[in-house]
Amino acid sequence: MEPLLEAALKARDNAHAPFSKFHVGAALEDVDGRIWTGCNVENASYGLTLCAERVAVFKAISEGVRKFRRIAVAADTDKLTPPCGACRQILWEFLGNADVILVNLQGKTATFKMRDLLPEPFDASFI
Ligand code: THU
């Protein structure tokens, strides 16, 4: 399996999801080939929960990285788990029309273009 997908699956092991019990991992590849991982982090107040994708993006951004190639998202579902709407907006901001690779614990994968996941996006071009 590709290292990026393995990294997403491994990051999933760190998920803090005591409320939903739905564990998600993400692995983001920057233009230098470095991998930034994230897991979902839930909170007793529910609404403060951060998804794995946004944790990965914010980790990289906070370390000064701005250019990315693609992201992998890992979850334990037969129908592969796609990013939520909020994450799609954040991914569009920093990855543009990148590939989003979904993977499950059996190694099943599917790849989507961000433009297909978020048609007609609102972004900085409107401001
Ligand atoms: N979640 C993610 O981390 N990424 C996704 O792509 C889908 C949903 C998390 C948020 C919450 O902790 C749990 O999964 C259930 O929604």
Strand-helix topology:
Elements: H1 3-12, E1 24-30, E2 35-39, H2 52-62, E3 68-75, H3 85-95, E4 99-103, E5 109-113, H4 114-117
Parallel strand pairs: 3-4
Antiparallel strand pairs: 1-2, 1-3, 4-5
Tetrahydrodeoxyuridine is lined by residues 17, 20, 22, 24, 40, 42, 49, 51-53, 73, 81, 83-84, 87.
What does this 3D model show about the protein?
The chain is of the alpha+beta class and 127 residues long. The protein has one domain (3-119): Cytidine Deaminase, domain 2, CATH 3.40.140.10. It has helices at residues 3-12, 52-62, 85-95, 114-117, and strands at residues 24-30, 35-39, 68-75, 99-103, 109-113. A 5-stranded mixed beta sheet has the order 2-1-3-4-5. A hairpin with a 4-residue loop joins β1 (24-30) and β2 (35-39). The chain is globular, with a radius of gyration of 14 Å. The model has no long low-confidence stretch (mean pLDDT 98). Tetrahydrodeoxyuridine (THU) binds at residues 17, 20, 22, 24, 40, 42, 49, 51-53, 73, 81, 83-84, 87. The site of tetrahydrodeoxyuridine has 15 residues, from α2.
